Amino acid sequence: MSLIRIQDLKVYYTGHGLFRKQSVTKAVDGVSLFVNDHETLGLVGESGSGKSTLGRAALLLIKPTAGSILFDGVDMMNAAVHKNRPAMKKFRREAQIVFQDPYGSLNPRMKVGKIISDPLRVHGVRGRKVLKEKALRLLELVGLPASAYDTYPYAFSGGQRQRISIARALSIGPRFIVADEPVSSLDISIQAQLLNLFKEIQEKEGVSYLFISHDLRTVAFIAHRVAVMYLGRIMELAQTKELITGPLHPYTKLLLSSIPSKDRRTTEQKEQTNGHEHGCVFYPRCGLAKDICMDISPDLKEVSPGHSVACHLY
Ligand SMILES: Nc1ncnc2c1ncn2[C@@H]1O[C@H](COP(=O)(O)OP(=O)(O)OP(=O)(O)O)[C@@H](O)[C@H]1O
Ligand SMILES: [Mg+2]
After folding, report:
1. Residue 16 C-alpha to ligand 2 middle, in angstroms?
2. Mean pLDDT per segment of 10 residues, for the chain of length 314 residues?
3. Directed axis angle between helix 158-170 and helix 112-122, to 10°?
């Protein structure tokens, strides 16, 4: 059984577009995937593809529009609706998130010791001595000196702050962590250190990650399997090595061959929402598109064991 299994998840944002016309952004549009125990699933795609929305919806930090989320076999959307407190409490404890911005996500008025032990307190762990011991163990686990315990976040660099965020996420012994671009704002050399830390923690603590990045190289370094996302949909999903050496989807091939620009997406998305509503979301950018691609959105289908692609070419 998978630790977390997401089925046909949809997250639509409604807002007001030009001339007060209501607009709908299908940020996540029918995504199904799972993450096993001790596994890292990488989620890659350019800006605006819906990665953060998917990651947050998977933790119910955003309310999904439709679909289901099974965590450890329990339907969490159901648990939320029916106010199943024990199930929600377990989920809040066992599923955590690490954000991209190491500057905005730590309370500047709290000392590091309190920041990383506070989740424990919230979840009912009592006793100053116990909390301090746990905090010191966490600092060691993420490679920070014990002296950090009595220091405020401002004294730390971006990479060190990210270690603090990781320690905080780990404090209540989660089994699943959504890491949303956790190294993207850091220098390359620091990125490598942190990616290694994520791996080390997985080996020691046995956690699973949904590891989000717009950079395929980052994801390939850390993930066992990779899902490629584009405008709300999963285009391809495979074991990392297979995805890198034998990509099938034209979009995956594009990601592998270049680093697509950010603003291009916006134009393409407009094209997509104006009059191109049924076909493949990648159609406007695809060099290999056929007639059917304009009209029918391809399902994600398994073409060889563990390798799925959403493309009419296969
Ligand atoms: N709160 C919101 N309200 C309305 N639209 C939103 C909201 N958050 C995200 N969106 C839109 O949903 C789409 C997906 O955004 P999301 O942030 O999930 O993408 P992303 O892949 O994480 O991008 P990035 O790489 O820039 O972080 C985008 O078109 C974005 O503009
Ligand atoms: Mg994001």
Report:
1. 21
2. 96 80 89 97 96 98 97 96 94 94 86 94 89 96 97 94 96 96 92 96 96 95 97 97 96 82 47 63 93 94 97 96
3. 20
Give residue 97's identity as a one-letter amino acid code: I
Spell out the domain ranges in the chain: 4-223, 248-314
- Are 232 and 201 spatial neighbours (Cβ–Cβ below 8 Å)? no
Ligand 1 site, residue 15, Cβ cutoff 6 A: yes
- Cα–Cα distance, 96 to 93 (Å, whole number): 7
| Dihedral sign for Cα atoms in the order 142, 146, 150, 153 | negative
Residue with tokens 């997509």: 272
- 252 ligand 1 Cβ < 6 A: no
The superfamily in CATH containing domain 4-223 is: P-loop containing nucleotide triphosphate hydrolases (3.40.50.300)
Q: Ligand 1 centre and the CA of 112: distance in Å? A: 30
Supply 152's token pair. Answer: 């405020």
- pTM of this structure: 0.93
Residues 6+ apart with CB under 8 A from 6: 31, 32, 33, 34, 54, 58, 67, 68, 69, 70
265-303 burial by CB neighbour count: b if 16+ within 10 A, else e? Answer: beebbeebeeebeebbbbbbbbeebeeebeeebbebeee
